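Methods: example folding runs. The two proteins below were folded one after another, and each record is reproduced exactly as written to the output file, sequence line first and structure-token line second.
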Amino acid sequence: MSNLKSRLILTAIFIPGLFVAIFFLPFLNHLVFNLMVIIVIFLASQEICGMFQGKGISTWPVFAPLLAASYGAAVYAESTGFLIPNFSLYWLIGIITIIFMAGIIVRDEKKMNERLPLLASTIFVIVYPGILLSFITRISTLQEPSATLLLFIAAIFANDIAAYLAGRFFGRGKALKLPISPKKTLIGFIAGFIASIGIVLAAAAIFPWAIPLSLWKAITLGAILGVLGIIGDLFESALKRSSEVKDSGVLMGGRGGLMDAIDSLLPAAPVFFYLYPLLTAGLFQ
């Protein structure tokens, strides 16, 4: 099966599934969707650990992903009111303490040379994708959460899809030959950037009661998401090139690993969470 067919099949399954989870199962602050986010954090963290291991860098392939996923679970529990406000911050401090304690518990002196890469890889997994992906759960606490979640996800995925299709059909022989991703094309970047703006503009025009953005605010938000989506894709490409692998994993079949599918979301999620309320609150006229 070609890569294009695999992407189309996954999109045809994944997008409706997300729509159902977000719009038709919103109870308990989108419990079903946020459970999916927590599972994705764990699986994506395992893929990152696999990259480290492929380079001979020590990791905790289960322990580190569990810590990352536990932070996502803490964010969700806090967002529903099950736990006290700012509990996720306290738990993050607890995670850091656990990592410090695990770092000094060494029975074999010969393994001391593994401590630095082991601790560094664990902290990286906690931050990326643990903390960054957890901002998607935080987005579900904003006003009109179902519409806001779909806006964010659609703008980022449209960027990814448009960049891929434009590069595939119109960018042949025009690759930028970037060291981190040699096959990326300028037309792909432009198409993805425009797609993000188009999605936000369309959402604001069709659903103004749920997405209250003026023309220039919609363009601004779309442009920022477009740039961040590209940065997220290139950052993960850099990780893969560094670890000398084509895909982050095999979970998504022809699409590659899970990180290959969600990389654009990671840098965009925290920016969207803080920027969107400012744009919709009327602070910028």
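Second run, written to the same file directly after the first:
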Amino acid sequence: MNTPAPILLIERLRARWLPADVLTRGTWLVLASTACFGLAPILGKLAYRAQVEPFTLVSLRTVLAALALWAFYLLQPRWRAAIAIPWHALPACAGMALANGFGSLLYYTGLARVDASLGQLLYTLYPLWVFIFLSAAGHRVSRLAVLRLGVALGGVYLLTAGGGGPLDALGIMLMISAGALYGWMLVLGQWAVADVDSRTVTLYVLTVQAGVVFAAQMLSGAPLAPTTMDGWTATVLLALIPTALARLLMFAGLRHLGGVQASLLGVAELVVALVMAFVWLGERLPLWQVLGAGLVVASVLLSGRESHLETSWEDLLREGRWRELE
């Protein structure tokens, strides 16, 4: 049975540069996945520098990623079985696609107005939105959860208002709202389709999402495609690396690793975004925003302690064990 080429490449790099006991195969694949996810705001900014419109970027990126996933699923025997989907899961996938589709439109519209580093920091607050939604559904609120909320709010204040400098209020609200919609999509998906293969859910959510954002592009009157080679390059890379390849690596890693602390993964993705924004885009965070970023990271790390027997509620959601939260 053939192993997909991207996963083989990751394995060869790990075998060449790291001893076998440094990182397990699953950990290495998941870390590679978070590195791919962290490139999303950087490639988005590079597309904007090439004069790509936000709605054009979102639509083309999602359509290309959906086509890439369909091709991969059809060509890989182990993944082909994941194409079949129960009828009862289709409405849930459609709801998730609507949430994630509108969320991606908000994310990339907001990204056009704020720095990639600040935008990713605000978006990374999505676990707090998951907590809020779970609390509204009756999940017990612990003192640690309240502490996390306070730390995160302090971080948001420093990121957005602590220095008194000029910031784009609309861009900030768009990024926070995008994180809220992603959190809602996560809760909705795991409540409604907990018994369905996550690879199947991802394929159909991304497919329906492509239709949602393409319709939004048509209604907005945005151009159908980039007009420059740089714009095409950034858009195609955004579709293939943070959108399609990152998901494939994540699923491959979780098969070997089991439940991974979502908080730690979120921090790894955030670190990649901040470093790449510094290296490629020349972005700098003022001191007060560095302090705010530290508070956001601390809040996300504390999510690993929001647990039943040291299992975070993000892990329970991802593994379809949400009933244990009751």
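Comment on the second run: The longest strand covers residues 307-308.
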